[in-house]
Design goal:
heterodimer, A: about 130 residues, mainly beta, six-stranded parallel β-barrel, 1 helix, globular, B: about 190 residues, alpha/beta, six-stranded mixed beta sheet, three-stranded antiparallel beta sheet, 5 helices, 9 strands
């Protein structure tokens, strides 16, 4: 754990889980482990880990080989890459999210409506105006 | 429970999506939990760009030293080579002056494919009041509608004709009239004249 009064500049790597409650600037690489940025944590670094949970503030790119969760207290500015990403209600996020749920999850993608077909054929280019009640 | 409104056009955006293919999506507005959850079923890259937070910078100014297009490029910072499959504009067009919509079209054009589809709101009547909502995707045919904490500045309602004249990188494919004179629009990328 990096406590609330600790400030670190540099490269963090290792073979165990990490909880950050202090300030970190640099890079964090714990590929096979979990990184949690706690409520008081402030990170200006790219993070690579198996699972990543953000309750604090992160400015940097985040790569989770398994999943990334930004909690309702989290504030992230950067790009996220992970198979699964969960943004809790209230989380603040600015950037891009690159997700790949794999074959199983992709097969559960919401099914497109079978009807009505709202997208007309190429031949019919005239916009249509529908009236909708309610 | 997140409030929502049904959408007749949203399903059309996903109608031809190949679930095995990676989707690249532009979402104008803040990232909402339900939108990320919805897209978590797809192989995708979501670009969240909250231009609603920078509307003041997009208001035309006579003493501006930087063009609106350059301002938009600086704000959006879309990586080179990015080509969007879907663009979710929500009600952005109702908060941009016509010059800014034109500049948006210029800024986005290099990032569109021939097959890019988009969704947005305009108005049928220019007297339509501001909706005061944040939008996201709750389900395939349900748009989440969260109240904004404060009204946005620069409300400038845009009707379909005005939009088609200024947003020349898209053409309106279908529109649905909603309550209070609002229009839901499905757009498709079109070659610029």
């Amino acid at each position: 754990m990096i406590g609330p009064s600790i400030k670190i500049k540099g490269e963090i790597s290792g073979d165990e889980d990490l909880l950050i409650q202090g300030q970190v600037e640099g890079t964090i690489s714990l590929k096979a482990h979990q990184v949690v940025v706690g409520e008081s944590g402030q990170v200006s670094a790219d993070i690579l880990a198996k699972t990543i949970k953000i309750d604090g503030k992160v400015n940097g790119d985040i790569t989770g080989t398994e999943n990334v969760v930004i909690s309702k207290l989290g504030n992230v500015r950067g790009n996220i890459i992970a198979p699964r990403v969960l943004l809790e209600d209230g989380a603040i996020f600015k950037g891009s999210i690159d997700m790949d749920p794999g074959d199983t999850a992709a097969k559960t993608a919401p099914q497109a409506a079978k009807e009505p077909t709202a997208f007309p054929s190429q031949e019919n280019k005239a916009p249509r105006l529908d009236l909708k009640s309610g | 429970m997140i409030p929502s409104q049904p959408s007749a056009l949203l399903p059309s955006l996903f109608e031809h999506v190949d679930e095995g293919r990676r989707l690249t999506v532009l979402h104008i507005g803040p990232a909402l939990a339900e939108t990320v959850t919805f897209f978590s079923h797809y192989r995708c890259k979501l670009h969240f760009i909250d231009l609603f937070g920078d509307l003041a910078k997009l208001a035309p100014a006579e003493d501006a030293t930087v063009s609106l297009e350059q301002t938009l490029l600086d704000l959006m910072q879309i990586p080179d080579g990015t080509r969007f499959d879907l663009c979710l504009f929500w009600d952005l067009f109702n908060f941009l002056q016509r010059d800014a919509i034109g500049a948006l079209a210029h800024a986005l054009a290099p990032h569109l494919k021939d097959t890019t589809l988009a969704h947005g709101f305009a108005v049928h009547s220019l007297k339509t009041p501001q909706s005061g909502k944040l939008y996201g995707i709750k389900e395939l045919d349900q748009i989440s509608t969260r109240p904004r904490a404060t009204p946005l500045p620069g409300y400038s309602p845009c009707n379909q004709g005005q939009l088609e004249r200024t947003l020349d990188c898209f053409s309106v494919t279908r529109s649905v009239l909603l309550p209070e004179g609002r229009l839901e629009l499905l757009l498709r990328a079109s070659r610029r004249s």
